[in-house]
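Project standup — Tuesday

K.O.: blocked on the structure for the chain from last sprint. Re-posting the sequence here as requested.
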Amino acid sequence: MAAKVVAQLPEGDDWMYEVKLDGYRALLIKRDGQVQIRSRNDKDLTATYPGVASAGKRLHAASAVVDGEVVALDPQGRPSFQALQHRGSNRGHAIVFYAFDLLHLDGRDLTGSSLQARRARLAEVIDGSGVLLSVDLEGTAQQVVAAVRDLGLEGVVAKRKTSRYVPGDRHTYWVKLKLDRQQEFVIGGYRPRPHGVDSLLVGYYEGRKLRFAAKVRAGFTPHLRRDVLVHLRGAHTAACPFADLPSSKVSRWGGGVTADEMTEMQWVKPVAVAQIRFVEWTADGHLRHSAFLGLRADKDPARIGREP
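H.V.: unblocked you, prediction finished:
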C-alpha cells in the first residue's frame, strides 16, 4: 500500500502521523523459521541486509508479514538514503528495519482489520526483536510538521486509524507530505566522462511516453560517478528513449538537451531509477537545481510518473 502525495496533511482524531522514512520499502516475512526481505518490486533483499533478517527471526510469531522500511541511520540517529546506497563506504551507519504495519500473523490475514488494531498487534510481535517501531507522532498536524521540519527530516505520513490495508494502491487512507522536494525518476541516458558519468538524463512517464525532466550533475562523488557508470553499462542502447528530445532550446536552468548535445549522450534503456532532490519544477517542465541522491532498486520504472 502506498501513500498519496498531498500539499497539506489532514487533521482530526481519526488520523495518526509518522515520520516519512528515507529508505527502501520492504516486507519482512517470517515463515517456518525462515525469514525473507522482499522489496516493493518483489526483489529478494535477504542476503543484502543480514542484520535485518536476523532480527526478523526473533519476531514473536511462528509466521508473520511485516510492512516497513530498511533504513540507514547515521551516528545521530538520522536516516540517510545515500548511506543506505553506499553502506560499504559509510562507516558508523546502522542498517535497521522500521516496522509500521502487520499484514499477516500466524496464518491470519489482517489486511481487513483497522490500522489501529494491526498496529496494536505489531508492537507485541516486534517487541525486543531488534525490529524497530515507526512510532506515532503526538500533536496536531501543524505541530508534527513543524517538529519534523526542525529535525531536517524528509516528510510526514498521515494514516487513517480506521483504515483497512489496500495492497498495491496509492489510497487516500494514507497520505504523505514531503518537506523537501524529491522523487524518483527514470534514467534514460547520461553524459560520459573518462572515469564515470558527468550527468544523468532523467524523466518520468506520461502514459507510455517517457518525458525528459532534467540533466542532473550535482550530488556525485568520484566514487558514485564510477558506480553509476558500472550500473548502467549493461543497459546501453543507440536510441534516445525520451519522447520530447531534442529540445528546441535550453532553458536558463539548463533543463533542455539540444540536437548538438544529443550527440554527446549515451542513451540507456529505461530500466533504472534514481532518487533526485530538486528545488522546483520550472514553467517548461524541467527540474531546477537538481541533485542525485542514489539509485533505487525497489521501484518499477514503468510506474514512475510526475508527482504533484
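K.O.: great, moving the ticket to review. The CA atoms of residues 74 and 93 lie 5 Å apart. The longest strand covers residues 94-105.
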